[in-house]
Design goal:
heterodimer; A: mainly beta; 7-stranded mixed sheet; about 50% strand; globular; B: about 120 residues; mainly beta; 6-stranded mixed sheet; 4-stranded antiparallel sheet
Chain lengths: ~110, ~120
């Protein structure tokens, strides 16, 4: 099983600043990596897929990078609505076998 | 627009079974897979398994093998997830999510999610 490890567990950042979240895979997942945002009481929302492609309707301040085993989600200028939990997910196998990272909580500093 | 509407909250006793439904609309049901994901209170996301809505093929998370069954009813565009021998640590919100286009024969991120179904296991 591919294990996804996110860091840090919690990130405290002030509004308007940049946030950088990391995700590492235990083996290469190529670019088959997605990022989700989840707010309390809501289903996750797809932000990024293919490691770097923004999903429909996602603001340009969200960007993803990386390939293989190391990935990064960057939020360039934090807005109040961006404070949430973020998950990475690999989708490199067929038939589908997905794994999520344990999440990074982005909180207001 | 794509919509996935799940059944309502359930309370079950340990050892019982639960069956959660996920009714799809806004797309051709049999062209996509459905994955199920759960989230225990205050915890992260756990993928449970996948079903092809075209032919019923499944792939379950190893941890749940033998306790979970996923099915579909193409006449009503509904997917089902049944979990048996419930334990207290099965208490979670259960989500269905539309998986990838089956023509591509590739796993896919989840653009569309159901609203979630809270299953509480308590004596």
């Amino acid at each position: 099983e591919i294990v996804m490890t996110q860091s840090p567990a919690t990130l405290s950042v002030s509004p308007g600043e940049r946030a950088t979240l990391s995700c590492r895979a235990s083996q290469s997942v190529s670019s088959n990596l997605a990022w989700y945002q989840q707010k309390p009481g809501q289903a996750p929302r797809l932000l990024i897929y293919g490691a770097s492609t923004r999903a429909t309707g996602i603001p340009a301040r969200f960007s993803g990078s990386g390939s293989g085993t190391e990935f990064t989600l960057t939020i360039s200028s934090l807005q109040s609505e961006d404070f949430a939990v973020y998950y990475c997910q690999q989708y490199n196998n067929w038939p589908p076998t997905y794994t999520f990272g344990q999440g990074t909580k982005l909180e207001i500093k | 627009q794509v919509q996935l509407v799940q059944s309502g909250a359930e309370v079950k006793k340990p050892g019982a079974s639960v069956k959660v439904s996920c009714k799809a609309s806004g797309y051709t049901f049999t062209s996509y897979g459905i994955s199920w994901v759960r989230q225990a209170p205050g915890q992260g996301l756990e993928w449970m398994g996948w079903i092809s809505a075209y032919n019923g093929n499944t792939n379950y998370a190893q941890k749940l093998q033998g306790r979970v069954t996923m099915t579909t009813d193409t006449s009503t565009s509904t997917a089902y997830m049944e979990l048996r021998s419930l334990r207290s640590d099965d208490t979670a919100v259960y989500y269905c999510a539309r998986d990838g286009d089956l023509i591509l024969v590739a796993a896919s991120p989840f653009q569309h999610w159901g609203q979630g179904t809270l299953v509480t296991v308590s004596s």
